[in-house]
């Protein structure tokens, strides 16, 4: 297989370890006087967007940043719980840049690009330095130095954290840097604005069309480069751990304007989420993977065992992860843990009223910590009750906020009864295809963070999303964008009177008018639910050719129904969340079709993509490296029409192996 | 639907900032106790759309209590009857069958209503822009472990930094004061060595911006902290007072 | 605006002024209550008049009295300014407000309690302090305050007004004492208990002491 001539990843020559440092020191620079005349548009203000906008402004570029929320501080990076990886080796447990690189490639089931991942591992340490300097209050040991915890898919402790709110603390750090620039006037912030199209002129991206969500006004914004930092598209499944507003619209518009979409079918199903409680459910809530450090996952050995979890004796419990994967146990990567839970539930061993849940049990951890406390305090004859109380206190300190949240949502006390968890859509590894510079196939149009496809292959390791978002924003784009902008210094200010802007604006308005004109019977919300049901059942944790083919047909029908039967209340001239929702759902429907097409194309199982036809006798994923070691980059050719371009993945520094956590 | 609770709702409706608003009454049947408060509003909105009425606009995003976007004044309290909980994490099991629930937007001069239950909280962003940061450009940083920070200070800073910027403190305060919000950020950075260089100027500028936004002063009633979904402590306000007074009387800024 | 007036007119500066003048007025209450309590010697006002004479004629005390008047004025004017800006901060009120769930009524009613105290202050000073000082100014002679008290507190309405004034003082102090420390930034886990205890004790003891004076005279316990 050869890489398509339409794809040039622009990976620098030379040995892997020195690619980035060499490239960084040879990439063209823009002098400060010219930077002042170059405008950069940043869409999305999560970790990637906020860090990029702030850093580019610090460098002297004129930056405009957009977010659909009422403040950049609300981007969904804020909800990340567990932590952020970095190859600091502070724990002296054998970590290194190479090991983080290796773990990430292996965790991604050998479907990520070596050069990008190595760069990510290289800059991971700088991220921690930068965040600490910005005042992020990471957890610390009594000696005053940073604390680490372990995460799934690794055997070292390299995860930095701030209780169960790491994403919040990192985002607020990046946000404060962004607000500093806003205060200085170097970043112009547009809150409650949604990007509804990108504008290309002569083959280069030159700006965006955005809608002011308060007034409904359609605005044109010109820039020399546009950065899409708009997050993932997990909400295509309707139920996911994403925020209600998380959407694919920006990335999808870029895709329809020429940016190829990479690996759309690679979605991550997170193993530890609070199970669905009923029809009304609007979103799912994650219980951090860090809980798997101390929690043990099990189901009853007997089918349909209806006793409460804490009354089932030890001997009648099946700790299936420890049984199947003794080396990693409860800390296997997410895709494997999720599939194992589904396998047990499908086989009839699930718990709770829905039977679609497994237990995550802290009783053993409570006892272990309780004894630890007793030893620490030199108490040798402690009662069981005391040990339990001390153990619970330790667990509370480590995971208190997560336990509280669980109790709040389910009404059950996880200190007393084991938590019930079930997998849920969490993250999308796929996204806009980008080269080494993070530029899409449209010159001047970049994609950062979860919105691009680049670093996690077919499965992302826990605590790596925060790392990638900040790496892209703080340490990659500030260098790589020079490669493009150095040749733009003679362009001059981008005029938004150009016919391309006029045309794009007219198209956006036409689409909004159409949505409002249909006045059918079904709300955007109900269309979203229908799409989610198709996607979850046929393109979810397990997929097969038959189901995917059906799904494609059903989604096409759904799209037709949508455009003839959607009912959008209100008008376009004021704050109208229903209209925003309709716009987003329309794009999700189109994306859903492409995801199924991609999943159908990939006749193998790898990472988060599990095709039932391709598994070992033990039910493990069966990769096909000979035929599918490529990135799928889909080019949009028209309605229901895509062309596949392949980027061959070449591993020069890693020995490809069957991924085993046994 | 799967639930059997029946509720009467009185919801504030206002078409835009300048329009006069008023309460509308709605009836809901089949509410499940397992629903979140916002899911109950989803049900209401679906019902309104079916009746050809415009749904209620309300702010919400993560629905897991961390983004700080949701903001409802429920039966006279921000985020409803429970302590330490955001509206999105409030579940209907906290209400009884047959209850009447009154829902209003945050009320403050500095938080104008945009529509229905949605308010404009840009004032908070401007307060942060005034000084809620450490001026460190990307790339300036030294090795993270070269700066040991006592665990206690780090923990206290974290407790203050846990603020989600929802504005419940302003909503709860009889003076619509933003002091809990502002003090949480001032405290976080005053407690950490990284924040020392700009400690004085930060306190001066953030407080000045807070006042310029039209928030009220503090009467130390403690309502803010009692209603804060992240239970940010009143100690932070005391610390801010110290920081501000100390800065004003000692800094060289005239 | 100079940095100084800018500081004192900021939201925190106004609170600083309230706290400082409040604590100053609290210290005045200690003196006032102590000297007035001399009537409980029940010696026909001899001890009381001795100290009353000292307070009314000692040049240092007389100078400090100007500070006291200033303290009252600043506390009152600053309070009114705060009341105005705090009211402006919420132009549209809540239709339903369950403030009892998160704070005490008296902490939310400092303006109201302060206004009641101001009314009481006007009545109280017009009973004693103003006539006495006017007479001193006009004739150089002090009035017999003890005798005036005995006469004034024969009227049950006056006694009732004084008792109500003391009740307002109790609630005002119960929040104000602790609140002043918080406004000054004095909130520390080691000392909060002590501040709270002293504050509560002070708020109870001083108003009771004051209230006992008109009551005792009215009931004839003190003659």
UniProtKB/TrEMBL annotation, chain A:
The keyword Disulfide bond does not apply. It comes from Dyadobacter jiangsuensis. It is found in: Cell membrane. It catalyses: a quinone + succinate = fumarate + a quinol. The keyword Electron transport applies. The active site is at residue 334. GO terms for molecular function: electron transfer activity; flavin adenine dinucleotide binding; succinate dehydrogenase (quinone) activity. Residues 40-466 form the FAD-dependent oxidoreductase 2 FAD-binding domain. This is succinate dehydrogenase. Residues 528-661 form the Fumarate reductase/succinate dehydrogenase flavoprotein-like C-terminal domain. Its cofactor is FAD. GO terms for cellular component: plasma membrane. It is a peripheral membrane protein. It holds the Pfam family FAD_binding_2.
TrEMBL record, chain B:
InterPro entries: 2Fe-2S_ferredoxin-like_sf, 2Fe2S_fd_BS, 4Fe4S_Fe-S-bd, Beta-grasp_dom_sf, Helical_ferredxn, SDH/FRD_Iron-Sulfur, Succ_DH/fum_Rdtase_N. It comes from the Bacteria. Its cofactor is [2Fe-2S] cluster; [3Fe-4S] cluster. SUPFAM superfamilies: 2Fe-2S ferredoxin-like (SSF54292), alpha-helical ferredoxin (SSF46548). It holds the Pfam family Fer4_8. GO terms for molecular function: 2 iron, 2 sulfur cluster binding; electron transfer activity. GO terms for biological process: aerobic respiration; respiratory electron transport chain. Residues 154-184 form the 4Fe-4S ferredoxin-type domain. Belongs to the succinate dehydrogenase/fumarate reductase iron-sulfur protein family. This is Succinate dehydrogenase / fumarate reductase iron-sulfur subunit. It comes from Dyadobacter jiangsuensis.
Automatic annotation (TrEMBL), chain C:
It comes from the Bacteria. The chain crosses the membrane at residues 16-40, 60-83, 110-130, 153-174, 195-221. One of its GO terms (cellular component) is membrane. Keywords: Membrane, Transmembrane, Transmembrane helix. This is Succinate dehydrogenase / fumarate reductase cytochrome b subunit. It comes from Dyadobacter jiangsuensis.
